[in-house]
């Protein structure tokens, strides 16, 4: 299952890495692809969308599923 999040506030490669690490820590995540230019993060696996949004917000970025 794939979930795509809109992630706002990423301005550099470090931001992408921070979001990727935050999402990778959520239970059920198999892989993560983050693209700051498109303001998107694509998550593969069975993670709950609300948990993914919370993880990104806890990392300091705005997110929506």
Helix content: 25-40%
Counted by DSSP, the helix tally is 2
The average pLDDT value, as a whole number, equals 97
CATH class: Alpha Beta
How many discrete domains?
1
For the CA atoms, what is the radius of gyration? 10 Å
Structural class, by secondary structure, is: alpha+beta
Overall outline: globular
Give the strand content. 35-45%
And the CATH topology? Alpha-Beta Plaits
Largest sheet: 4 strands, antiparallel
Named at the architecture level, the CATH assignment is 2-Layer Sandwich
In brief:
This protein is an alpha+beta fold and 65 residues long. Helix content is 34%, strand content 35%. The protein has two helices and four strands, in the order βαββαβ.
General description of the model:
With 65 residues, this protein is of the alpha+beta class. The protein has one domain (2-64): Alpha-Beta Plaits, CATH 3.30.70. The protein has helices at residues 13-24, 49-58; strands spanning 2-8, 29-35, 40-45, 62-64. Strand 2 and strand 3 form a beta hairpin. The two termini are 14 Å apart.
Any chance you could write out the topology, listing elements then pairs?
Layout: E1 2-8, H1 13-24, E2 29-35, E3 40-45, H2 49-58, E4 62-64
Antiparallel strand pairs: 1-3, 1-4, 2-3
Keywords:
alpha+beta, Alpha-Beta Plaits, four-stranded antiparallel beta sheet, 2 helices, 35% strand
């Amino acid at each position: 299952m794939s979930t795509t999040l809109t992630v706002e506030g990423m301005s550099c490669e470090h931001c992408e890495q921070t979001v990727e690490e935050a999402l990778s820590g959520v239970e059920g995540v198999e892989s993560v692809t983050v693209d700051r230019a498109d303001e998107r993060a694509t998550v593969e696996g069975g993670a709950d969308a609300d948990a993914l949004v919370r993880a990104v917000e806890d990392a300091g970025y705005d997110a929506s599923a």
